TrEMBL record:
Residues 7-85 form the 2Fe-2S ferredoxin-type domain. This is (2Fe-2S)-binding protein. GO terms for molecular function: iron-sulfur cluster binding. It holds the Pfam family Fer2. It comes from Corticibacter populi.
Length: 101
């Protein structure tokens, strides 16, 4: 099973997920990485679930049109929308709250 390492505000959380798992769906049903993952609509419209991929990007699908629209040049910096990712292999992500949040 894939291992997910999720960094948030200086802390790291690790858990295993089944292949073809979406982290926003899991957080919505109060499983790992709940309550640490920030997310909103779950449909790629709000970008609240934006994360930077630290490791495992090569195993993620190609960014879809929603990610291209929301993230633009940030895709080149390693950012992805967690709601649009289906985890098949180990991945390490970081998500920081915006200043003043």
């Amino acid at each position: 099973m894939p291992t997910v390492i999720f960094h948030k505000n200086g802390s790291a959380y690790e858990g295993e997920v089944r292949p073809n798992t979406n982290l926003v769906v899991r957080a919505g049903i109060k499983q790992f990485p709940f309550p640490h993952l920030s997310y909103g609509c779950g449909m790629g419209k709000c970008a609240k679930c934006t994360c930077k991929v630290l490791a495992g990007a090569e195993n993620l699908g190609t960014p879809n049109w929603k990610e291209k629209k929301q993230l633009g040049d940030k895709l080149d910096q390693g950012y992805r929308l967690a709601c649009q990712l289906w985890i098949q292999h180990d991945v390490e992500l970081v998500q920081e709250d915006p200043p003043g949040a």
